[in-house]
Amino acid sequence: MASLQGPRAPLEFGGPLGTAALLLLLPATMFHLLLVARSGPARLLGPPPYLPGLEVLWSPRALLLLLTWLGLQAALYLLPARKVAEGQELKDKSRLCYPINGFQALVLTALLVGLGVSVGLPLGALPEMLLPLAFAATITTFIFSFLLYMKAQVAPASALAPGGNSGNLIYDFFLGRELNPRICSFDFKYFCELRPGLIGWVFINLALLVQEAEQRGSPSLAMWLVNGFQLLYVGDALWHEEAVLTTMDITHDGFGFMLAFGDLAWVPFTYSLQAQFLLYHPQPLGLPMAAVICLINAIGYYIFRGANSQKNTFRKNPSDPSVSGLETIPTATGRQLLVSGWWGMVRHPNYLGDLIMALAWSLPCGVSHLLPYFYVLYFTALLVHREARDERQCLQKYGRAWHEYCRRVPYRILPYIY
Ligand SMILES: NC(=O)C1=CN([C@@H]2O[C@H](COP(=O)(O)OP(=O)(O)OC[C@H]3O[C@@H](n4cnc5c(N)ncnc54)[C@H](OP(=O)(O)O)[C@@H]3O)[C@@H](O)[C@H]2O)C=CC1
Ligand SMILES: CC(C)CCC[C@@H](C)[C@H]1CC=C2C3=C(CC[C@@]21C)[C@@]1(C)CC[C@H](O)C[C@@H]1CC3
């Protein structure tokens, strides 16, 4: 039986009040963005054009489509994997196993969707279903998070996350109580983090591109760029799927509403905002500007991938020739911290690259509206907050060595600024 972990873990996200507000604010923001993206003025900060009634939001067809999608991704997750990776060591010293077949799931989904389209599946009709789909996803994640909360009631104390077990129902529901909820070998958090939402995002983008082609004869250059950049991002995440096993989402955070809603609703319906905006507000984009934007995305990707790969290689094998020459700081845990290379430039070079890419995804939408830049603003806030959480965890893990790292590398994300 689960026992509460008591008041040891400091409350995050503004405690019970903050998380109660987020429970309402996150879905409200998602619906606001969906409504505003298709409205004429497309004002991020203005009121939504109308408040949709239940007859607009509720559609059994959308719910069926969503459940079919989740079922398909779950089936692909269960297919034989090219590799089975071990996660980080748990409290009870055991390690869980995870299938590495996310990229395979992306390719197989593409083949299945391609096959569907060739026999008449109307992919271009998807944009019209985004509101009811987002509503179905929201309801589903509320129910799912409730089931996860109930499941944690009967989980052993060793299976609980360090946060998310304060005893406050709303706070724990939001953060998530159990660290790695599973049924047999099916890991819900790992599955949701990388599959239905990320792959769904790519196919929503594609449907918006197809719809634009149907409406205007061909997709715009801006739409191609947004689709290409975001496909690269998702493909990269799935190709390097194993790296997600060391993120705080997997190693530290419980699985509750925050991640369930984030993964299954927030990512597909708000991360596709630029493509949604472009369908309803076509933007002219010349070749020279497109080339500049491609260059910005390439620079961002180069930093993002370089930094992530350098750290992952170093953590797997510090004597790998590509990282063995880098300067390091020893820590009391036996692990070392990189203090040169990408991780000597700022303390989160991967966030910097990610933010540069975020800018490149918005630039094809022009500068007439603030709406497509929502992702840049939200993502900056998310990464600044995430960086602060990670610093707290690293300080706890590495103590004086972390102080030394901060002294040697004083900037967090943006050199000489932050
Ligand atoms: N698109 C999106 O919505 C989001 C994207 N991301 C992206 O996901 C990726 C993963 O991000 P995230 O999980 O936040 O964290 P990171 O990949 O930045 O990992 C942080 C961890 O790296 C290790 N570390 C930190 N500094 C050093 C160092 N100098 N040398 C060696 N190891 C170090 C520490 O763990 P340890 O020492 O235990 O190894 C630390 O806890 C990033 O590229 C991020 O941009 C993240 C969130 C949302
Ligand atoms: C809705 C909330 C405010 C926050 C939800 C956060 C989630 C959307 C993100 C938490 C960590 C994420 C990661 C990724 C996607 C977004 C979420 C799920 C990646 C999979 C994106 C691709 C990267 O290469 C790896 C990321 C790991 C963390």
Automatic annotation (TrEMBL):
EC annotation from Swiss-Prot or TrEMBL: 1.3.1.70
Gene3D superfamilies in alphabetical order: 1.20.120.1630
Catalytic activity: 4,4-dimethyl-8,14-cholestadien-3beta-ol + NADPH + H(+) = 4,4-dimethyl-5alpha-cholest-8-en-3beta-ol + NADP(+); 4,4-dimethyl-5alpha-cholesta-8,24-dien-3beta-ol + NADP(+) = 4,4-dimethyl-5alpha-cholesta-8,14,24-trien-3beta-ol + NADPH + H(+); 5alpha-cholest-8,14-dien-3beta-ol + NADPH + H(+) = 5alpha-cholest-8-en-3beta-ol + NADP(+)
Keyword Cell wall biogenesis/degradation: no
Name of the gene: TM7SF2
Transmembrane residue ranges: 20-38, 58-79, 100-123, 129-150, 254-273, 285-304, 355-384
Keywords attached to this entry: Cholesterol biosynthesis, Cholesterol metabolism, Endoplasmic reticulum, Lipid biosynthesis, Lipid metabolism, Membrane, Oxidoreductase, Steroid biosynthesis, Steroid metabolism, Sterol biosynthesis, Sterol metabolism, Transmembrane, Transmembrane helix
Family: Belongs to the ERG4/ERG24 family.
Signal peptide range: none
Pathway entry: Steroid biosynthesis; cholesterol biosynthesis
Enzyme class at the top of the EC tree: oxidoreductase
Gene Ontology CC: endoplasmic reticulum membrane; nuclear inner membrane; receptor complex
Localisation: Endomembrane system; Endoplasmic reticulum membrane; Microsome membrane
Protein name (database record): Delta(14)-sterol reductase TM7SF2
Phylogenetic lineage: Eukaryota, Metazoa, Chordata, Craniata, Vertebrata
